[in-house]
Amino acid sequence: MIELIQFSWSPFCIVARRLLEFSGAKFKTTNIPSSDRSLVWKLTKEKYYAVPVIKDGAKVVFESGDDTQDVAKYLDAKLKLGLFPPAREGEQFLLWRYFEHEVEAVGFKLNDVYFEEFVPKADQLPFLRHKERKFGRGCIDQWRAQKKNLLGELEQKLQPCEQMLAHSEFLLGERPLFVDFNLFGMIENFLFSGHYALPKSLPNLREWHRCMKTIRIAR
Ligand SMILES: N[C@@H](CCC(=O)N[C@@H](CS)C(=O)NCC(=O)O)C(=O)O
Q1: Which CATH class is domain 2-78?
Q2: How far apart are alpha carbons 141 and 5 in whole angstroms?
Q3: What is the pLDDT of residues 187-219, one digit of tens each?
Q4: Which of 60, 61, 73, 107 could form a disulfide with 190 if both were Cys (CB 3.0 to 4.6 A apart)?
Q5: Separation of CA 203 and ligand 1 centre (Å)
Q6: Which sequence spans correspond to the domains of the chain?
Q7: Does ligand 1 lie within 6 Å of residue 10's CB atom?
Q8: SS3 170
Q9: Which is it for strands 53-56 and 2-6: parallel, antiparallel or unpaired?
């Protein structure tokens, strides 16, 4: 059975998890503490410490680069999802980079403001230290203070998606492709704390999001 090694609020893990649910395949999730990567380190033969990682029998899959989609492409091929049609590869590449950089960069800050509510107590110190080493001392307090502006920024960054979804049910047409799942993961990370909703000014995106939550492949 396919195993997803994850922690539940990670935007990239949410993408992999939703793909697995979409496929209807049996899979199991193994949650690791964000502060202890020893399982991932061991599985990847000391090559990787991030999540998600997929273990499928003897095969272990993880990202080979910053903007790759090795995990999603492995699941797509294995589970025959058809989410990476060659004719749309260029467009999808441009979009997933925008989602994983521009959208994720604002969404995770808004979620992290509430980290004490979803990161287990024992992991809170390493979580905070990890963030502060990357973004500077007091970064989470700053994001908390900037919440209104960050929400405005996110709304603006999602505007092009709203525009696309005014003309088709999914981002690139009448069936979902990988980028729909990718954007879904970034948005679910933003929503993870339970303190936010998608802005009312993005009705098409809200409708798409409702659909992406439960959509299953038609076999
Ligand atoms: N581009 C990678 C990014 C994965 C990633 O950054 N994962 C985060 C969790 S959201 C992580 O484990 N980062 C390493 C760390 O926190 O030390 C992907 O799409 O999977």
Answers
A1: alpha beta
A2: 30
A3: 999 999 999 999 999 999 999 999 999 999 998
A4: 107
A5: 30
A6: 2-78, 86-214
A7: yes
A8: strand
A9: antiparallel
